[in-house]
Design a protein that fits this description.
By secondary structure, the chain is an alpha+beta fold. Helices cover about 20% and strands about 25% of the residues. Bound molecules: pyridoxal-5'-phosphate (PLP).
Length: about 350
């Protein structure tokens, strides 16, 4: 297998078209057989439900080359079931979970030449997604859908070490109580764009969203869940019905408990207690954990004790353990690693 001539270590996080992608269409109440296609473009009716009413959802996961040269992906079954949950909430047909995993593996294999080599720090990002395709002008769910999976190689998230982030407490809300914050729909991202552009303009890396009802509790950022480390070495993560259940966060909590012997607590986290924590990190597929060094609430600064130079020691241990599992350096819990080749 000859790899593409790509400067893996210097890849960023932007779209690069690969050779092949998976497509399946839903019509008359069922999904067709599906398969690989070469064309990266999509022709759609001008009145497609996705274009008019944003009926679309997605997932994100990665394929890795392990130390012993296998190509694997991490817990794709959880992405499959999360997409099924999202689809139900958005009145879209569920794409069978086993077929989802098969489509992911098949697409990675078809783009094997783009899977970055072990040790490069780069990975192959995988994007499954689904959208309503037929013309819908009166507001209702589409009758026809397309499910696709594309891949794109992405670079090491932390080039030259993990720089702790500075967050601001957003004046915007991400998700309403009883809304759609717990599902991975494009709609949650459309409304976050103004908030993130505003945060960047003001010199911040990310938004910390508070709960919309009381604005006293920590929710998450636009695309990552929080974990906090207490001064007595416990892992705390916010519990809320309106945050997206991150697979990385769930995996890190398991690792903290089962590999590192730490106590793990999922509970409501008041913004007022954030200043008491020793470390803070953002969890998601893209970076695994991004350390947070500072949180600014309308001019009032909370300086996280782990500082602005590097990850805190517990965050580092969690990061090393989970990435060790993903890269095949540490033994994985049963069912976590799906071997593609
Ligand atoms: C995708 C996503 C995450 C991270 O989830 P992972 O499964 O860990 O990648 C966190 N928050 C939001 C809002 C997301 O959309």
């Amino acid at each position: 297998m000859e790899k593409k001539n790509i400067d893996w270590a210097n890849l960023g996080f932007s779209y690069i078209s690969c050779d092949s992608r998976y497509v399946s269409n839903y019509k008359d109440g069922s999904w067709d057989e599906g398969g690989q296609v070469a064309d990266e473009t999509i022709a759609l009716n001008e009145c497609a439900c996705v274009l008019q009413y944003a009926q679309t959802c997605f997932e994100g996961l990665k394929a890795y080359t392990t130390q012993d040269g296998r190509i694997v992906t991490f817990r794709p079954d959880l992405n499959a079931s999360r997409m099924a949950d999202t689809a139900k909430r958005l009145e879209m047909p569920v794409f069978d979970e086993q077929r989802f995993v098969d489509a992911v593996c098949e697409t990675v294999l078809a783009n094997e030449a783009y899977v970055p080599p072990y040790g490069s720090g780069a990975t192959l990002y995988i994007r499954p997604y689904m959208f309503g395709t037929n013309a819908v002008i009166g507001v209702k769910p589409a009758d026809e859908y397309q499910f696709r999976v594309f891949t794109t190689p992405v670079g090491p998230y932390f080039k030259g070490g993990a720089k702790p982030l500075t967050l601001c407490v957003s004046d915007f809300d991400r998700a309403a109580p009883r809304g759609t914050g717990h599902v991975k729909g494009g709609l949650n991202y459309a409304m976050s764009l103004h908030a993130i552009v505003t945060a960047h303009k003001n010199g911040f890396d990310e938004n910390m969203y508070l709960d919309a009802a009381t604005r006293t509790k920590v929710e998450e950022t636009g695309g990552a869940n929080f974990i906090f480390i207490t001064k007595d070495n416990k892992v705390v993560t916010p519990k809320s019905d309106s945050i997206l259940p991150s697979i990385t966060r769930r995996s890190l909590l398991y690792v903290a408990e089962k590999y590192l012997g730490m106590e793990v607590v999922e509970r409501e986290v008041l913004f007022d207690e954030v200043k008491e924590f020793a470390e803070c990190g953002l969890c998601g597929t893209a970076a695994v954990i991004s350390p947070v060094g500072k949180i600014v609430d309308h001019g009032k600064e909370i300086n996280i004790p782990s500082g602005m130079d590097d990850m805190g020691p517990v965050t580092r241990k969690l990061y090393d353990t989970l990435t060790g599992i993903q890269m095949g350096r540490l033994e994985a819990p049963e069912g976590w690693i799906k071997v593609i080749k």
